[in-house]
What does this fold into?
Amino acid sequence: MSDGRSAFRVGAGFVGPGRPDPLGATVFDGGVNFSVYSRSATGVDLVLFDAPEAPPVEVIPLDPEANRTFHYWHIFVPGIGEGQAYAFHVDGPWRPEAGLRFDRRRYLLDPYGKGVILGVGSERPTVPGDAGEPGTAHKSVVVDRRRPFDWEGDRPLNRPFSETVIYEMHVGGFTRHPSSGVAQPGTWAGLVEKIPYLRDLGVTAVELLPVFQFDDRPGADGRSDYWGYAPLSFFAPHTGYASRRDPLASLDEFREMVKQLHRAGIEVILDVVVNHTGEGNDRGPTLWLRGFEDRDYYLLDERGDYRNFSGTGNTLNANHSVVRRLIQDSLTWWVEAMHVDGFRFDLASVLSRDEAGRPMENPPVLWAIESNPVLAGTKLIAEAWDAGGLYQVGSFIGDRWQEWNGRFRDDVRAFVKSDRGMVPQLASRLLGSPDLFGHEAREPEQSVNFVTCHDGFTVNDLVSYDHKHNLANGEENRDGTDNNLSSNHGVEGPTDDPAIEALRNRQVKNLLAVTVLAMGTPMLLMGDEIRRTQRGNNNAYCQDNEVSWMDWRLLERHGDVHRFVRGMIELRRRLPFFRAGRDWSLAELLAHADIRLHGVRLDRPDLSDKSRSLALTVRSLDGPTAKGGGRLHAMLNAFWEPLEFELPPLGEGDEPWRRKVDTALPSPDDLADGPGPHVEEGTYRVEAPSVVVLLSAARPVEPRATTASSPGTTEPERRR
It folds into this structure.
């Protein structure tokens, strides 16, 4: 590959001009080809290191004549290979008002680098003058695409959304608490040790908070980037989750985690941050993209200032051709090399903005992602809003994107806490949000339903605090939303009052029962099944401590909630009521389904502003004689007093009603094992507040000449 035209000697051979494709560092026989993009640079140096903290061993200037093709700077270096640490110096004009912020002193990460070594030091760089010394600068690491790994036949699982239950989790926080009992807490391997727990819970996919390399060292203010929403790479797995801070070890351990999750039938979805980076605004450090071509990689205004639709200081110029390619190449890398099953796009509405920040009717990057054949079998989930006020839930572009349903979160929270006027909205959320998604020829599972996620209260805190308590974040409690739609039920924070604690426990079950049973794709937050608390912090992005970690001792303390959630997931898996089993859209499903809405009186739903109760009956789409058919009747009472609900009469082909769920009952009666006790026809007293689910299994209609079978031996349940 080398033709010897460069005068600089490395190792045993002369460097060659290299080639522009592929971008990044690519291992070939005899050496490594490096290629980066910069259209305005006047000079580029490749800097090689033998050790992360040591000065460079070689600084190789790239000749603009021999080592540049169009806007791509490239070079082939013989005698090196995988594991080589490197960075770039990029020279050019300093004209911030024109979007040119070149600084040759900076050590820059490769935008396509597959591995990263964080700079030596106890603090992460937070100002422009940081990362100018070789020891404190981050370095990229050469990773061979051909790096062997025994996948043992592993492939992405391609599970349909109709069978998917998502568990949103933080890789480190899942096992970092001492109570986790794993050998390597806070790591990919620690997560692997807990796979039996996830499988037993019944979730079918883990949605991992960002795993792209980020700097998790504390800043000068002592706060760390715990969540990881400040990426330094779109390709490198975070070394902080590896057993050793070694980029190659992290890559292999990530692959092993994916393989083991797949063996357990659990998909891996990555929360990807391709709307901004860890470089921040003009007061942030220059670490990678800014130093190569600021005005192409980021959205800038006419003064050269950063447009901030992400709330973090900068916004990626996602629809620029070079950035669009970077994003696609990143996603295909994670699918092809790492076997992930899908992606959740943080602040995905940013990706629909043009270079002036205006929403586009047909954003090229979103259509490119959707139509990419490598990504054809992956799950694509959009957080369809951004920090600039663009809200696209129900109108996000494309034909195969699922969407986080923020309206589901807010409306279910408001109903359960007994806010006025929420019954019409609740009905829509239970039925797949047809007011948002019914106009699209899409599957009923387009709505990703959740009441909690990493950003906000946990479900325990949602029922334990009226207000956020974020003082530990160092921002005088100004950060985090004030619109929590929460209730402390009488006391702010923890309490020893058994009545308040019992009510909170019931409300937790109410919230999670609605999430799991509603039509759509349910998503649960890590630890909600054991009432994990963040002590009222609704923005724990910087809390890498017990505030955010999963305390496994809660599994014993709140074992009844864990049992309830586990049982609800299993119930959803077995119920045919909200899954058509056909290629029907949400609108077609609702048109064909036998769904009846009620209030406390049959067929008379009270949709008034003062109403706080709803019931619905659903007949299986499989028909009355099919295995697994039958009827479901759900009653939801958010009023402050018990209500007597009329029950639908049963037909000739229906088994008697059985009580499967009643969140007002103590465990284990809150979710019955087996079919559950018989319930008399007529009425059912639903306590305040609670969710009740009755089931009537289908049976073939007996011929008229056949003597009716005797009733079951279970006594009908008497009303309380």
